[in-house]
Amino acid sequence: MKISKKIFGVLSSGKKAYLYILKAGDMSLSVTNFGAHWVSLFAPSRNGRKDDILLGYSTLDGYTRNKPYLGATIGRFGNRIGDGRFSLDGTEYRLYKNDGPHSLHGGRRGFDKLLWKAESYEERGGVFVRFELVSPDGDEGYPGTLKAAVSYGLTKSNEIIADYQAAVDAPCPVNLTNHAYFNLAGEGAGDILFHRARLYASSYAAVDESLIPTGALTPVQDTPFDFRTAKPISRDLAAAGGGYDHCFVVDGDSGTLRPCAEVSDPRSGRIMRVFTTQPGLQFYTGNFLDGVTGKAGSVYGKHAGFCLETQHFPDSPNRKEFPPAIFGPDRDYHEKALFSFDWQ
Ligand code: GLA
After folding, report:
1. Distance from the CA of 287 to the center of ligand 1, in angstroms?
2. pTM of the complete model
3. What residue's CA is closest to ligand 1, atom 9?
4. Is pLDDT at 124 greater than 90 in this prediction?
5. Which atom of ligand 1 is nearest the CA belonging to 78?
6. pLDDT tens digits, one per residue of 4-32
């Protein structure tokens, strides 16, 4: 196992951002403290060929203008808050609307655009980086001073462990996640539609045309959203409206780390299994990727990658029927995710 650190670039503020390269098992993961982004993930194929399976950019500059949130850590609230507002105890809070009428992924300057404090360490058969930041009261319209601590690590058994914690001194919606886009054939190697996906979800949150949940949790049975048995992502894509961008309700008890997804690439033999403590999983097939210039000349078109964002349900602050995503002085936020890799 090995941890190395180098300067990734200098921000317009003059502050330096660092790249941490974690090596363990057969893989290597690099992350930066700018936006706590996952930058690269090298994994072997069944023939021993190492490819970078994360969409991203070669330089820090790309991450400062990262419209699709490639690899970003998202906060204070992942996905959409309808109409950019919510009420708590009779007070209405207004957020920045960066997605038509809605607020998306924390607003104008979410956690993906902040420089985090970072510290690397070795522990429990893995190498980790712990990122911390303080989001002041009123930041992006959210109440309370929030302290976030997110750690990402790579283990000797080829797993990424993600741990998300936040403490906030006033009631506030919190929904942290990572927005990594994977292509198990290698970033830049075409689209992911031939990957096979299995999702451990018997229902999903139905959405309106602006992707805000209607409140209905619809059974997947007899719909294009049924991934309970593995199938190629392409199979029912057209019937699903040309792409997936939906929050699936993960089977089993939230609060316990349980399987939520398994995706495999038949060509390279790479398999990724995802586990989460969260109630939901946003399965997104890169529908809005429109020719983004990525690493070393790669261009990411529609479906060039897929995301599995472990999270609370979108727009939870406005949906009393959804699992509560309000945290505060009496309720700290703590969620975990695990991504395990194999190649056969
Ligand atoms: C999430 C959303 C998508 C899109 C991406 C970012 O996955 O659900 O609709 O906004 O983030 O491009």
Report:
1. 8
2. 0.98
3. 245
4. no
5. 1
6. 999 999 999 999 999 999 999 999 999 99
Q: Distance between CA atoms of 205 and 215, rounded to whole angstroms?
A: 7
Q: Yes or no: say if 335 and 181 are a contact pair by the CB < 8 Å rule.
A: no
Q: What are phi and psi of 113, to 5 degrees?
A: -110, 10
Scanning 116-270, the segments in alpha helix (DSSP H) are: none
Interval between CA 6 and ligand 1 midpoint (Å): 30
**Which residues are catalytically annotated?**
179, 309
Ramachandran category for residue 158: left, alpha or beta (phi over 0 → left; psi -120 to 50 → alpha): left
Mutate to test the pocket of ligand 1, among 66, 80, 103, 104 (most ligand atoms within 8 A of CB): 104
Q: Which CATH number fits domain 2-343: 2.70.98.10, 1.10.10.10, 3.20.20.70, 2.60.40.10?
A: 2.70.98.10
For the Cβ of 315 lying below 6 angstroms from any atom of ligand 1, the answer is no
Ligand 1 proximity of 247 Cβ (cutoff 6 Å): no
Taking the alpha carbons at both ends of the chain, their separation in whole angstroms is 23
The residue type found at 272 is M
CA gap 74, 113 in Å, rounded: 9
Rounded distance from Cα 73 to ligand 1 centre (Å): 13
Question: What's the CA angle centered on 329, arms 324 and 331, to 5 degrees?
Answer: 40
- Determine the residue type at 286: G
pLDDT tens digit sequence for 1-11: 999 999 999 99
Instruction: Give the number of residues written for the chain.
Output: 344
The DSSP secondary structure of 22-62, one letter per residue, reads EEETTEEEEEETBTTEEEEEEEE-TTS-EEE-B---SSHHH
Q: How far is the CA of 310 from the centre of ligand 1 (A)?
A: 13
DSSP 64: H
Q: Is the CB of 53 under 6 A from ligand 1?
A: no
Cα separation, 283 vs 262, whole angstroms: 12
Task: Please tell me the number of Cα atoms within 13 Å of 158 on its side-chain side.
Answer: 15
